[in-house]
Write a structure and sequence with these properties.
The complex is a heterodimer. Chain A is an alpha+beta fold. Chain A has one domain: Sufe protein. Chain: A, CATH 3.90.1010. Helices cover 40% and strands 18% of the residues of chain A. Chain A has a three-stranded antiparallel beta sheet, with helices on one face. In chain A, a hairpin with a 6-residue loop joins strand 1 and strand 2. Chain A starts with 7 loop residues before the first helix and ends with a helix. Chain B is of the alpha/beta class. The model of chain B has no long low-confidence stretch (mean pLDDT 97). The longest helix of chain B has 21 residues. Chain B has 14 helices and 17 strands. In chain B, strands 4-10-9-8-7-5-6 form a seven-stranded mixed beta sheet, with helices on both faces. A four-stranded antiparallel beta sheet of chain B has the order 13-14-17-16, with helices on one face. In chain B, helix 11 packs parallel to helix 14. Classes of the chains: A alpha+beta, B alpha/beta. The interface between A and B is medium-sized, with 18 and 16 residues.
């Protein structure tokens, strides 16, 4: 894997992530902003009992932020709350130089070049911040 | 005096370095500009040979440090055309603005109004909001036009008998637009209000004749005018400063202290609590002496020629839209733009691989971004040491951005 932040796979996911895939109806919606740059991720979850049935997102952000939100949207269906909740810590550890990602999060290995750019880590983790808020909302709202 | 950009570049050691294997093209001067050798030498010389606290010691080093610190105050005063005893050192423009917002507003009454603008940096918004929450003040705002200037037609309905101050930027840090100060001063004088100008973006581009502006407060910061970070200044007329209570308490700013109460020093020391940023002030003084030796009509012509080259190049790119004045009238070389299909951070990241340093984002000006319905812009900001090859490298880099992302 090269050190190019904008390799074809990331750009392709970013372009896909530019689409508005928000869900109506949804069981939880979280909106998070990056105060440093103004990027915003809206993440919707539709639940099937304890599992995520479907996810949708709308992202106003950079290519890395959009690609991350799209990656998240794709990998969430089928995960239960506990598994989903582990994503943010796993991704943060990976970006900080940790070991390989566990199975549900392997798609984030495409973001390996971001590890060398700490100022951009927040671009990738913003969607996971939204996930944490959305999961909390599903618990609070039953 | 003449102005030789190539000679000026050689005075800034950092411009000789490479970034990512490319020649550095530094176009982020509105955020922080680079320092000439004269400033580096002055700061080092001070800490190496004259380091001591100021105003209190009687030994030789304390005398030397005090003289250097006060000489720097005189340098700032000369740059602004004002008296040295009307210059208050602060850690930067943000701290200087907080002095006014936290101290001067204590003279106001609940319901009094502060008029800001949508062009302001957050540092000229948030301090006023904090003061308003404390004192029951009302904040109003002059809107921005689509061109990124102040909508002065709104002034008559915004300025009223409760308006106590108009606090505005002298030059927008996003659009480069120069504020029509006369209009603000006239509106303020009509109701007996004060005017504050944030000169952070204007002061690096030549001496400022503050008395002719007719304003009551002027603020600048060192790190944008080729000086050190951690130093800035507030100017206000003597009687205005004397009317203001202290903001921060501590050493240096007192006349006498008992456990029950204290009395305070005269300005400017009333507002310089604690040990000040001495070496930084010395560095700022050196920066101003360096800048003062230049022919500023020639520097301005040089900077405007580069701005025109940049604006022309951007206008020729169909993917790009300039955010701000399209021409050179009443603007400086701070140029923002958006690029279709490319987020400003991605633009800047790719430009960085080519050695071009620009800034992307909201530039701490979210109200303006909201008004213009933008998440952010890419900003190139020109300083005296930039040359045509810097502009061309940026414009060529945008082609690379398009190839990679669009």
């Amino acid at each position: 894997m090269g050190d190019d932040l904008y390799q074809a796979e990331i750009v392709a996911r970013a372009k896909a992530g530019a689409a508005d895939t928000r869900l109506e109806p949804h069981d939880a919606r979280a909106t998070v902003d990056n105060p440093l740059c103004g990027d915003r991720v809206v993440l919707d979850l539709r639940m099937d009992g304890p599992r995520i049935a479907e996810a949708g997102q709308r992202t106003r952000g950079c290519a890395l932020c959009q690609a991350s939100a799209e990656t998240l949207r794709r990998c969430l269906p089928g995960l239960d709350r506990a598994a989903a909740a582990g994503g943010r810590a796993a991704l943060r550890a990976y970006l900080a130089g940790g070991a390989d990602l566990p199975p549900p999060w392997r798609d984030w290995e495409a973001f390996a070049p971001v590890r060398a750019h700490p100022s951009r880590h927040g671009c990738v983790t913003l969607a996971l911040d939204a996930l944490a808020e959305a999961l909390a909302a599903t618990e609070g709202g039953g | 005096m003449s102005f030789d950009p190539a000679a000026i570049r050689r005075e800034f050691p950092i411009l000789a370095r490479e970034v990512r294997g490319r020649k550095l093209r530094y176009l982020d001067n509105a955020a922080t500009s680079q320092v000439p050798r004269a400033v580096l030498d002055a700061v080092r010389e001070h800490d190496a040979m004259h380091r001591a606290n100021v105003h209190r010691g009687v030994h030789a080093l304390a005398e030397e440090a005090t003289q250097a610190y006060e000489a720097a105050r005189a340098d700032v005063a000369r740059w602004l055309g004002v008296r040295a005893d009307e210059i208050v050192f602060a850690s930067g423009a943000t701290a200087a603005l907080n002095i006014v917002a936290q101290s001067w507003t204590r003279l106001l009454s609940p319901g009094d109004e502060i008029l800001l603008t949508e062009l302001e940096h957050h540092s000229n918004i948030v301090p006023w909001q904090l003061a308003a929450e404390r004192a029951g003040l009302v904040i109003r705002g002059i809107p921005a036009t689509p061109e990124g200037r102040l909508d002065l037609e709104a002034l008559p309905r915004l300025v009223g008998p409760r308006t106590r101050i108009i606090a505005a930027t002298h030059v927008s840090n996003v659009t480069g637009a120069v504020t029509d100060v006369d209009a603000l001063v006239a509106a303020a004088r009509g109701v007996g209000a004060r005017v504050l100008l944030d000169g952070s973006q204007r002061a690096p581009h030549g001496p400022v004749d503050v008395p002719s502006l007719g304003v009551d407060f002027y603020v600048l910061t060192g790190h944008k005018m080729h000086g050190p970070s951690g130093i800035g200044a507030l100017w206000a007329r003597r009687e205005v400063l004397e009317s203001m209570p202290p903001f921060l308490g501590g050493g240096e700013m007192i006349r006498s202290v008992t456990l029950a109460r204290s009395t305070y020093a005269d300005p400017p020391r009333r507002f310089e609590a604690g040990t000040p940023p001495i070496a930084q002030a010395v560095g700022l003084g050196a920066a101003i002496r360096f800048l003062s030796a230049l022919d500023w009509s020639a520097v301005a012509a040089h900077e405007m020629a580069l701005a025109q080259r940049l604006l022309d190049g951007l206008a020729a790119d169909r993917r790009v839209r300039v955010v701000g004045p399209a021409g050179l009238q009443r603007r400086i070389g701070v140029v923002s733009f958006e690029m279709a299909g490319a987020h400003p951070h991605d633009v800047c990241q790719i430009l960085d691989t080519l050695g071009v340093a620009c800034r992307g984002g909201h530039h701490c000006a979210q109200p303006l971004m909201d008004r213009l319905d933008l998440a952010g812009t890419t900003r190139a900001s020109i300083a005296l040491y930039n040359d045509a090859s810097d502009i061309d490298a940026l414009l060529e880099g945008l082609g690379e951005v398009a190839r990679r992302l669009c």
